[in-house]
TrEMBL record:
The keyword Protein transport does not apply. Residues 1-26 form the signal peptide. Pfam families: NMT1_2. Belongs to the CmpA/NrtA family. It comes from the Bacteria. This is ABC transporter substrate-binding protein. The keyword Protein transport does not apply. It is found in: Endomembrane system. SUPFAM superfamilies: Periplasmic binding protein-like II. It comes from Massilia phyllostachyos. Keywords: Cell inner membrane, Cell membrane, Membrane, Signal, Transport.
């Protein structure tokens, strides 16, 4: 089946539908205190709630969810993209290829930190006969969007079997809908970030066919992205945010106890609003299902991601690394203590 099937839905939309008014981007909204940082309730974004909570504790407000910067929950990438583009928020966790595409359209954004490593899975039903990708020829597999690195992961796995996306039916679907779609038989598999793989696995009706921890160890997807005017007008605030995100990553990977605490913190309504047992399942099964301690920004890794995106048709042309990345904040990170 062809990848552009009528069953595809919930398209991300890409940068071609930019909300220009007379060719000029809307003026950004005034910066609120605390700084609103957009994110999804996914474990690839877990460093953000931990950073927000850790800063609140450091400020002597342990009951607060945030003080200097605050997690702002979104339901999907299109909403985050539009909010960041129009300046309603000035910072967010974003899909790396989407940031590349937006900067190619001259949207003033910069990636200033990674948010995680690994964390994507390709799930199939426990009772299915699928053991390798060749078994899934002609089957329907859901992805979050064509800009998601999950889609690039799926393409890599297909290529290893001598297959292409034309050999399956690719359906774009919101990740929270994927477990139910698999259970109902609406799709034969899905490729996404956690905890939406773990939710179905823990329920007993799905198993991983492939995981980035095994197949793509330097996988990156969600990246901390800020508008350039925030860098120009409040560089210390951006630096503090990066300091705490990087510290949150180190803290998360330091011990199982910290990961258990993180699951309970992120599960609260102020953050993900999810069952802490599902988040903890991601943290424990196995312990490197998602990792956070190595948040270095490496040019060669972004270049690989960019080339894969060009090959996939996500990007129309190569985008220069300096155009969408600002390494200076990671290079100037000041260690901070996470006391949670």
């Amino acid at each position: 089946m062809h990848q552009h099937s009528p069953r595809r839905r919930q398209l991300l939309g890409g940068a071609l539908s930019l909300p220009f008014a007379g060719g000029v981007l809307a003026a950004p909204a005034p910066l609120r205190a605390p700084l609103q940082v957009g994110g999804l309730p996914v474990t690839c974004n877990l460093t953000l709630p931990i950073a927000c909570k850790a800063r609140a504790v450091a400020d002597g407000k342990p009951q607060a969810a945030a003080t200097l910067f605050e997690y702002n929950k979104y339901s999907g990438w299109p909403e985050i993209k539009e909010s960041l583009m129009t300046g309603r928020i000035q910072a967010a966790y974003m899909l790396a290829p989407l940031v590349m595409d937006l900067t190619d359209w001259r949207i003033p954004l910069k990636i200033v930190s990674l948010g995680h490593r690994s964390g994507a899975v390709i799930m199939v039903r426990t009772d299915s006969r699928y053991r390798r990708f060749a078994d899934m020829k002609g089957k329907a597999i859901a992805i979050p969007s064509r800009f998601a690195v999950d889609y690039l992961f799926l393409r890599k796995m297909l290529a290893r079997e001598g297959m292409s996306p034309q050999d399956i039916e690719v359906i774009e679907m919101a990740p929270p809908d994927m477990p139910a779609a698999l259970y109902a038989g609406a799709v034969d598999g899905y490729c996404t970030g956690e905890p939406f793989g773990a939710a179905a696995q823990r329920a007993g009706y799905a198993r991983p066919l492939s995981m980035t921890r095994d197949e793509w160890r330097n996988y990156i997807c969600c990246v901390l992205t800020v508008r350039e005017e925030l860098i120009r007008t409040n560089r210390p605030l951006v630096q503090e945010l990066v300091n705490y995100v990087q510290a949150a990553g180190n803290w998360l990977d330091a011990s199982p106890v910290n990961r258990d605490k993180a699951a309970h913190i992120a599960a609260k309504r102020d953050f993900f609003g999810q069952d802490p047992k599902i988040i903890k399942f991601v943290m424990d099964n196995p312990s490197d299902r998602v990792t956070y301690g190595d948040l270095r920004m490496l040019r060669n890794e972004f270049d690989e991601l960019m080339q894969l995106s060009v090959q996939a048709g996500t990007l129309k042309r190569p985008v220069r690394y300096e155009q969408y990345v600002d390494e200076s904040f990671v290079k100037n990170v000041r260690p901070v203590k996470v006391m949670l």
